[in-house]
Write a structure and sequence with these properties.
Helices cover 26% and strands 22% of the residues. The chain has a four-stranded mixed beta sheet with strand order 5-6-8-7, covered by helices on one side.
Length: 160
């Protein structure tokens, strides 16, 4: 249905799907222009920036993994500012939810939050479509182990 480009730093994920275009790069330290902010790690953007298509319909933020972090994307928002729909995965992690929030504020997007991902859009999503996404999201949530969910969402029982 669409052309998919995947940015990968792990060779194990390159070429898994023949219909996907892969851009291979490594993880590097990014220096912050703001000296009070620590550096962070992200994809080495220089070797892949001119290989990226001029426009995308959707951007799925699902990497790098948590041990690397995704904050480096925020250094490159100008390259992706015209994208109408973003999907930010793993927003059950506070850092990834923060990234989704910043993208929305910086690019003037609307955020729809589901249990483990957020949709960020330039235009409102019709309620019928949101209901379908929500329903499917709850199906996936119900298939997760209790331990996995409690790792991120622990509710303490309160006395009356």
């Amino acid at each position: 249905y669409c052309k998919v480009t995947s940015i990968e730093h792990n060779d194990d994920f390159l070429g898994l799907y023949p219909e996907v275009s892969y851009l291979s790069t490594k993880i590097v330290e990014l220096e912050s222009e703001n000296q009070t902010s620590p550096s962070c790690r992200w994809y080495d953007f220089k070797p892949i920036s001119d290989k990226l298509a001029a426009s995308y319909s959707i951007l799925l933020v699902d990497g790098p993994p948590a041990d690397v972090g995704r904050e480096g994307l925020l250094f490159h928002l100008d390259h992706f500012s015209s994208i109408p729909i973003w999907i930010v995965d793993d927003v059950l992690r506070e850092k990834d939810q923060r990234i989704a929030n910043i993208i929305c504020l910086e690019l003037g997007l609307i955020q729809y939050r589901f249990w483990n991902f957020s949709l960020l859009t330039k235009k409102p999503i019709p309620s019928k479509i949101l209901e379908k996404i929500h329903s499917k999201s709850l199906e996936v949530l119900s298939s997760q182990s209790k331990e996995y969910v409690q790792r991120y969402y622990t509710l303490e029982k309160r006395g009356d």
